[in-house]
Model the fold of this input.
Amino acid sequence: MHTSHFIFAFILFSLFLYCHPAAAADSLNISLTNQLPLCWGGFGDIALTEDNLAIIAAGPSGIRFLDISNPQNPREIGWYIPNGSVIHLLYDSTLLYFNNTCGYNQSFFNILDISDPLNPQLLSHLNFNHYDRFKIAKYQDYCYIPLDIQGDGFYVIDVSDPQNPFTADSISAYEEVNDICITGNYAVTAEGKLGQNRGIGIFDLNDPAHPNAISWCELPQAEHPLSIFADSAYAYVTDSEVDLAIINISNPNEPFFVSSTYFPFTSSSNKHIFAADQTVYISQGSLPLLIVDVSNPADPELLSEYDSFNIFTTIVQDDTIYASTLEIIDAADPQNPQLISCRHPTNLREIDVNENLAYLGFLYGGFEIVDITDLQNPIILSCVNNNGQMSYVYDVNLQGNLLYVVHLQANNNYLRIYDVTDATSPIELGSANTFQFPDELAVSNNHCYVGTPNLVNIFDVTDPANILPVGNYNYPGMTGVQALDISGNYLFVAHSNGLAFTDVSVPSNPVPVDTFRLYGQEYGNDIIVAGDNICFATTYGIYIFTASLTSGLQQIGFIQLNNPKNLVISIQHLLASGNYRLYAVNIENPANPFVTGYYDYDFLIDIDSDVEGNLLFRAEETNLTVYDIETALPVEKESFSNLTAATFSLFPPYPNPFNEVLTIPFTLEQALPVKVVVYDALGREVRELGIGNWELGKNTIVWEAGGLSSGVYYVWLMADSRWQVTEKVVLIK
Done:
C-alpha cells in the first residue's frame, strides 16, 4: 500500500477508535491501568512558541508539545488529547486555539491554556454542527473560521473572554472560503473550487467583529485554491493544480494578479504555503517540499525540491524549516536544504521493558526510550531514527546494556546494536545488512538470530562494532517465520506450518532436530521458552512441549484459546493476546494449563507485549497500554468457577479413523450456545452439524459422512461465540 494511503487509512481507523470509545470491558483478574498515547496518529498544523516549544496537531493523537531547544534532538514533553482528530491550530501568547472533529456532524472550536505545557487546561469549546476541519486566523480579540461546506464565508468568534467565546458574526464571501490569513488590518481569503469563481477576497478589519469585504481578485487557471499566505505587498496562493499564484495586494482595494507557476509532478490536494524573506515554501503531503524564490514575483524560480515524510504544514524561522512531522530542516542554503532532525512516531509496534524503562519500536519514527517510573507522566528520554531514515522497526531486544534493533532503511534491512547505558543518549556500536525482510530476533551466546520470511540469518555479535554473518538455514518445510526463541543451544522457530526445533551448538552449522506440523486452517503464531518447556501458540490454542536431542519435541500439554499470540512469561504464567481477549494462563503444571484471568477488548490491533513485575505492557499502535495482572498470577484453579462456567471441552471423536459414522463428544459446564462445523483439508466447509443451545454436562453429536470421499477432515466447535477448538479426523471408505 502506498505510504500516504496507509497513513490516511490509519488516521481513519484511529479516528474511529477515538470517536467510538469502547464499552466497559468484560474481565477477570486483569484490569486496565493506563493508556499512554506515545504514538502520533496523523499530522496537521505546527506552531512555535517564544520559548523553544513546537506544538503539533497530530490528528487522532491530539496535540503534542516538543522541546526544540536542541534542534538535533527534539524531545516530546507532553500532550493534550481531546476526542476526535486535531488538524488545525493557532498559538497566541499562552493560549492555543484549535479545532477537533468527531464524526460527520461534530466539529469543535477550542481554547487551551498552555502556560504550563505539562498540564494544559481546556478553557472552553464551541460546537459547530457540521463536519469541518476548519482553519483558524486571529486578529485582536477575534478568531476567523471558514464556513467551508456550510456556505460562502467565515465565522467571527469573539475570544476576548477565553472561557466564554461566542459567535459574533457570520461574514459572507464571494465564494467558498478554503483558507484565511491576516496581514496588517486585513483578512485575506483563498476562495472557490471547480464550478465556482476562484480567487482571493480582502476584508477590512477596522471593525474586527464585523469584517467588511472590500475587494476580490480572480485567479486564472486555478482549480481549487487550498492555502494562502500574505504579507503587506503580496498574497501567495497554492492550488490543487497551480502550484503558486501571486497577487499584488499593496493596495488592498485594488489587488491584481501577477503570475501563476506550475511545477512538474506536483498535483496534490494536500498543500500548504508559507513565505519568508522573498522565499515561498509549499508543502504537499507525500510529494516533495518546494522551495521557491519569489524575489521577482512575475517569474518565480524553483530553488529545490526536498523529499520528505508527508509534510502537510511548515513554519520557517531563522532559515530553519519546522514541519509538522516533526522534521527540522536547515534552509540557510535554499538550494541545498539539509535535514537536522526528524521525529514522527507513528504505529507503535514493538516493546521491551526493563525495570522503569520501556524501549519502543515504531513503524515510522525509529525507536524511543521512555522512563515509565510514573505511568501517569512518562518521560521520553531519547529518540533514534537516523534522521527519519529508520522506518519499519520490526523488533527490539534488550540484552544487558545492549539494544538489538532490526528495521528497514532506504529499502535495505538492517540489524543494529546500540549501547543504551545512558538511556538519554544511545550510541550505535555496529550494524549489518540482513538482506531479507527481518521480522524477529533472538540473542544468545554472542550470536543473534534474525528471522526473515523463510530463513533464519545468524550473526556473530561478539564484537558489536564488527557484526559478522555466520550463515542461515531453512528448516525443511519452514515457511512464513512468525517468531523465534532460543534456550542454550536450542533454537525454536514458530512458522506458518508449525514449529521447528534446531540444534545451534555450532551456529555456523545449524542441525534440524524435529518439527511439529500443523494442518488445515491451523497456523503458527508465536513461540516462547518457559523454563524446561516450549510454549507454541497457534490459531487454535497453545501447545506445550519438552525438547531434547534424543526425543525431539514431546507434547505434554495444550489449552484451547482463540488465536493467541504475543506470548510473555510471568511467574509460571503465560500472558497471551487472542482475538478480542487478553489471557493469563497458569502453566505451573504444563500438562494441565488453565486460564486464571482475562480482559476483553473490542479491536484486533496488537503488535507486541512485554511484562515487568505485575504489569503487562502492550503495543497497540496508537497507545502503549498497561494492564495490572497481579490478581491473575497467584489464583488457584479452584477459585475459577465463574471462568470455567464459560468453558468447554471437546473430546477426541470416535472411532478415528471412521467409516460413515462419527461420534463427537463434548462437555459444557454451563448451558451454552454451541456451533459444530466440519471442514475438509482445504478449509472448505462441508457440513454444519449442530447449532443451538446445549445442556450442561456431557453431550454428543453424530456425524453421518455419507456422500463424502475419504480423507482428512476437521471438526470445529465454537461455544458462546468465543471459545474455539478443532479435532482432526480421518474418513476411510
Remarks:
- Confidence is low (pLDDT under 50) at residues 1-24, 636-646.
- Residues 25 and 341 are 41 Å apart (CA to CA).
- The first helix runs from residue 3 to 19.
- The two ends are 48 Å apart (CA to CA).
